[in-house]
Design goal:
The protein is α+β, with helices and mostly antiparallel strands. Helices cover about 25% and strands about 30% of the residues. The strands form nine sheets. Strands 24, 25, 26, 27, 28, 29, 30, 31, 32 and 33 form a ten-stranded antiparallel beta sheet that branches. Strand 4, helix 4 and strand 5 form a beta-alpha-beta unit. The longest helix is centred in the middle third of the chain and has 17 residues. The termini are far apart.
Length: about 675
Amino acid sequence: MSINPIKRLLIANRGEIAVRIIRAAQKLGIETVAVYSETDANAQHVKLADIAVCIGPAPAQQSYLSIENVLNAMSASGANAVHPGYGFLSENADFASAIADAGYIFVGPSAEVIRKMGDKRAARHIAADAGVPVVPGYDGDDTDDAILLEHANRIGTPLMIKATAGGGGRGLRRIDEMNEFHEALMSARREAGAAFGNSAVMLERMIESARHVEVQILADNHGNVLHLFERDCSAQRRHQKVIEEAPCSTISEQTRQGLLDAAVSLAKSVGYTGAGTVEFLVDEAGAFYFLEMNTRLQVEHPVTEMITGIDLVEAQLTVAEGKKLPFRQSDIAITGHAVEARLYAEDPSDGFLPQTGTLGIFDLGETATGEAKVCANARRDCGVVEGDIVSPFYDPMLAKLIAFGDTRESAVDRLSALIRESCIAGVTTNKAYLNQILCSEEFRSGKTRTHSLDSAEPGPKMPARTQAMLAAALLEADALKTCPMPSLAAWRTNADAHDRFILEAQGQRYTVDVLPERTANGWDITVALDDETKQTVCIEGNTYRLVGKKQRFAHYRHHTHHCFDIGDHHIAVQDVTHAAATTNNKDGNGLLKAPMDGQVVAIAVENGAVVKAGDLVCVIEAMKMEHHIRADISGTISGIEIKVGDQVKSRAPIGIITSDTSTSAKESS
């Protein structure tokens, strides 16, 4: 095969993976082209690339998922190659084919291989033909509702409904009771159709107490197919990976070799080239079953890079140019252990709802470079910096935090410290939840399985009254940095100088009186809530001590809204001290509101319908995930003015449920 150098590389993606690819290309002296949607005009990948081209409005279907728009950007920018990253068009065979037909280099396998392995039904058949064990299930062409239900009853529960296209946990539903089947099937088809343009599904038996172990593959166009060992991705919530590590510490050498051999055999059988991943489920006895093949770079690729010293993006570019891989299987060895955590803009204490807003503070300990540091102790792959806006249109991942150690224990300890030392304010994140997992006995002892996090509750949210008291103390401390004595209010009692705050936390208002006292190193600030609860908060610089525990805090202010990152908690309050008093308006009691910014994708009821508590009212899609809005009380629904396709803002009214008791009371009066 002749060598075809990549001179200018277009990255058909955004966020941290676009930044990661740009860094690798620039290291090799390759010019880079960023594509961006209108809402991403100031994104980091746009600023880092040599050239940037706008490819459409914010919705992904009109920008990052538009093959025509990306091809136009290729022509306009003069790029001769494209790297798809992961997500979006990375596993779209039509895209790979269009790129090749236009005479450009596609950094990845051929369109034919993507099409074969991207369809989970076809991939199962190919794996079985290659002698790789597959999960028992139904992968026939007839997917009529009645046929699927018949096979579901044959397979039994627990059961998985799985979209045949795509991945990332979308279009995937678990069934524990057959009465859940119809709604889950409709939801899986709808989500798959929206995410991948293909609503076809298949059925698989749920392998209980399974580990999710995947093998990294690299192959060139000269017949070399290599593995870079395995990763353990069992720590996942609702089929979304949360923490990944390499190597897998809970399998035998016999199982490891079986996995590696099976992955290489499968890659050879389909003529695979480039970087790819073969995913397996491993049961407690060490038996393994083929799950799927991802024909692209994985989100968790850094842990493999850390333990092997091989830059996977550089290897992808080398293969795409037609060159041989510069190493053999015997050159690849495992050194140490690496662990990665995915940092998301989401609120674990509120059902992991995606969060939007401005990253007022985004400090991960040092400037993130996105570069792979072989055997370095820590790495931070980021797609955002302080001041960036997190929008509702795309995946809410902010960064990946990766730690390396000589042992698994040291790597986990280092990652835990990295997370604890970070400060993020302005947007709620899952960082405390990540650390909760890393510190848990289950994870530490290697007992985490694919279902473990589904039943593990995130740490409790700090009570609203405690939030208000602590926020008042921190606000007072902030004022005292510039004022020798408090001056935010002028309320006095018993000749002591106090400040009074009226703060709104979690929809509730609290009046907090504050009395500061200077100490040798800072301030002791006593807060009193409604004259019944008192607490002294010791504040020194950017740390505070409460109930003997010292923690670092960061404060971000946006008008009257204040956000605090205080280690294990994210506090968000509004200072309404000088605002006119208004009646609290809480969610609940039949007042249904959108939990986040998003798009209405389904409406299950009409005005006038009688619903029971728990009935589905509508479905809102945000950041590529579906969120079901259900009736919180039983009664008659009214006030539904939304329609499918509408964009709704967070806390926008969805509908009103008038309870049966309310109706009866009105009639009797």
